[in-house]
Amino acid sequence: MRTPKGRSMSRVTKSPRSRSVVPRPGARPPRAAARPALVARHETTPAAPPRERRLFGTDGVRGVANVFPMTSETALALGRAVAYQCRRGDHRHRILIGKDTRLSGYMLEMAFASGVCSMGVDAMVIGPLPTPAIAFLTRDMRCDAGVVISASHNPFEDNGIKIFARDGFKLPDEQELELEAYLDDEQVGKMRPTKGNVGKAFRIEDAQGRYIVALKSVYPSELDLEGLRIVVDCANGAAYKVAPTVLRELGAHVTALGVEPDGRNINRKCGALYPEGVQAAVKRLGADVGLALDGDADRLIVVDDLGQVVDGDFLLAIGAEDMLRDGRLRHKTLVATVMSNLALDKRLRDLGGKVVRTQVGDRYVVESMRAHGYSFGGEQSGHLVYLDHATTGDGMVAALKLLAVLRRQGVRLSELRQTFKPFPQALVNVVVKEKRPVEELPEVQKLIRQVEKTLGGDGRVMVRFSGTEAKARVLVEGPEKAHVSSAAKSIADAIGRALG
Known about the structure:
Layout: E1 11-12, E2 56-57, E3 60-64, H1 72-86, E4 94-99, H2 105-118, E5 122-128, H3 131-140, E6 145-149, E7 158-165, H4 173-182, H5 186-189, E8 201-203, H6 207-218, E9 229-233, H7 242-249, E10 253-257, H8 276-285, E11 289-293, E12 300-303, E13 309-310, H9 312-325, E14 333-337, H10 343-350, E15 354-358, H11 362-372, E16 376-378, E17 384-386, H12 395-409, H13 413-416, E18 425-431, H14 442-455, E19 460-465, E20 471-477, H15 481-499
Parallel strand pairs: 4-5, 4-6, 5-8, 9-10, 9-11, 14-15
Antiparallel strand pairs: 1-19, 2-3, 3-7, 6-7, 11-12, 12-13, 16-17, 18-20, 19-20
Helix pairs in contact: 1-2, 1-4, 6-7, 9-12, 14-15
């Protein structure tokens, strides 16, 4: 059976000339139990579901490890549910399981594999590798599903479970809801294969090498990285071996940071969330570029040769211009989310292209790209999706694409970044105890209206709740930096008073 959809409530507000994305309630009737092929479907970007879901957020299941829902019991039950959902045909079914470097990964990996095997499906365990590597290997090895045990950029005490379809794409909302329904389904509970029908667990030893070869194939064969000095921070996470190896094999002189994971130091003042370490190293070493990945290496933040941070919006602008130049940006369209800077729209218009926007989440960027045949998109946070090379955000694919642009054009990143001038933008995160609709917060509503009136048609205000953390995010964009910063802080403070 299928349960109704649900997601945390968010509100997007705007000035008259900005766009908005507002989740609206609706209902989907239940249907009889089925076991569809685990293949992500081609759809337009979905509206946010109408009701809070029990487990899945915007990027899988996530929470404090060993506290519901991130317990070994839940992992085992989800392993059974995924194994049930992916069964199709009479072949021996296989599910690939990878993880990042968190201490709790051992516990959850084994529990999930146990659930898979209990359903008569084989578990292929590959250990620490980036999230996009699991997506790639799921498709490359013809597995029936892929699973990542990771909480991405969250601190080490958190963990999560992300699921990929057999084609390497993240599951759409309705199939995640289907998995939640299977947790209580009597038919699933009664499936208990015995004797030779119980599944087996295998450790795959060459998974890292397969992914390294795939990454190197992204970089143009006529180019190399000889003489380029690169600092790469792997956040003590899943790419701690892969990223330095790829860059060195392509000829770069590499200084690697965040490559000593101990289970507790993933994302700890390093990687994409803390690019200060890369900035300092680039300045100290006189490096050409710095690359900062997050814990599961699905996002990228870059530092130029002057030590300045280059975020996802800059990378989207640079990549889109390069692809427009040689006709690789299909339909001359870049896909971004509502969080990206409005200057992207202006830049693409100036270049003869356009931007289409989705709700927040790289999965929704990908769904829009697949539905309409677009080739490039991403998020301000550094999730970049080159759909001709990857099925999800891949920090190393994004890095190699950027390095190829620098090599082909023979310019420094500090020069290239001058081609994109973002509008002043302030983003403030505030911890909340509950996620009540913004419409129910009078003080917040009053402040939003005041800020919108001041901005007129030259900016926007957006308030939304995170789908992976207990936080509200306040974005204000406008012509004056000081004003947008103070406005964002005022709204965030009001949310904190109401919900903190």
